[in-house]
């Protein structure tokens, strides 16, 4: 039911503020309501298939910009949701030695993608299958690429947060995720690329021992990757000076009311524990507790 949406123009230019090294000449995204696009050439014969978003091939420069933003390597498994003719998956295999999966509901596009992969000589590294994005299994992905409408992204958002492992990178061309703010946003003229890192679920009350002997406790509230909360040291109120969450890594800076020097803890979320990623300060894993 969902299609990759892309715009194929020859040249485009980078914003002056953009940090990318891409040399892109006069590229402009089509009118946001797509009224200026003619999709007649992409109609299909099957009357029972209705595509919510028409397919137009992604410009190759944008493909490589998406792979760069996602920092795709040979260790990744890339899933392209709404893969169209498969060019993102094939480019990742050809240029990054990355295994990839493309999912699309249009059988004609799946056939095109398989043929394209075969012609490129990477058919042994990729796979394409027909499926509904709201039902297909993409839980093994370490990178997910999207070129869908914003409403479709928002509809997919719960699955991306619940089913992908913390640290998985998501890159979307043109469309965001509603109130889930991106970790990075790059602009190429009128073309926007967004990147999110799936956050671990760390909301709740956690307790652990420091190497100095004190018992630390934090009560964390979470909205996506944004963390707020309160802290205690040996049951005495303390200040949670900073809380940063990046994938499965959580950094907390806590200051005692009686000590001028704050103490920092770097932890990795592993199941129901926050284990020390920096052994200097944390003596025991943080365990989620229930306060009576």
UniProtKB/TrEMBL annotation:
Residue ranges annotated for the Methyltransferase domain, each copy included: 80-165
Record-listed E.C. numbers: 2.1.-.-
GO biological process, one term: methylation
Enzyme kind, highest EC tier: transferase
Cross-referenced Gene3D superfamilies: Vaccinia Virus protein VP39
InterPro entries cross-referenced by the UniProt entry: FAM173A/B, Methyltransf_25, SAM-dependent_MTases_sf
Domain of life: Bacteria
Keywords: Methyltransferase, S-adenosyl-L-methionine, Transferase
Pfam family, one: Methyltransf_25
Keyword Zinc-finger: no
Name this polypeptide is given: Class I SAM-dependent methyltransferase
């Amino acid at each position: 039911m969902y299609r990759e949406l892309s715009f194929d123009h020859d040249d485009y230019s980078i914003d002056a503020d953009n940090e990318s090294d891409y040399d892109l000449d006069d590229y402009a995204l089509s009118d946001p309501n797509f009224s200026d696009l003619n999709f007649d050439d992409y109609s299909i014969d099957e009357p029972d298939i209705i595509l919510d978003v028409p397919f137009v091939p992604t410009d190759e420069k944008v493909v490589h910009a998406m792979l760069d933003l996602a920092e795709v390597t040979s260790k990744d498994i890339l899933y392209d949701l709404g893969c169209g003719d498969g060019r993102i998956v094939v480019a990742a295999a050809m240029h990054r030695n990355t295994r990839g999966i493309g999912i699309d509901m249009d059988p004609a596009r799946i056939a095109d993608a398989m043929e394209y992969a075969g012609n490129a000589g990477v058919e042994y590294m990729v796979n394409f299958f027909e499926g509904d994005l709201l039902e297909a299994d993409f839980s093994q992905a370490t990178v997910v690429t999207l070129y869908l409408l914003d409403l479709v992204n928002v509809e997919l958002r719960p699955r991306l947060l619940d089913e992908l492992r913390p640290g998985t990178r998501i890159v979307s061309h043109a469309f965001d995720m509603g109130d889930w703010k991106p970790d990075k946003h790059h602009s190429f003229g009128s073309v926007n690329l967004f990147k999110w890192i799936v956050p671990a679920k760390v909301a709740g009350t956690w307790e652990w021992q420091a190497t100095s002997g004190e018992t630390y406790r934090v009560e964390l509230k979470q909205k996506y990757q944004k963390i707020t909360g309160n802290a205690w040291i040996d049951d005495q109120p303390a200040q949670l000076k900073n809380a940063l969450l990046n994938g499965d890594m959580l950094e907390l800076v806590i200051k005692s009311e009686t000590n001028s020097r704050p103490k920092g803890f770097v932890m990795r979320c592993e199941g129901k524990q926050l284990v020390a990623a920096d052994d200097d300060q944390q003596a025991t894993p943080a365990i989620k507790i229930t306060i009576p």
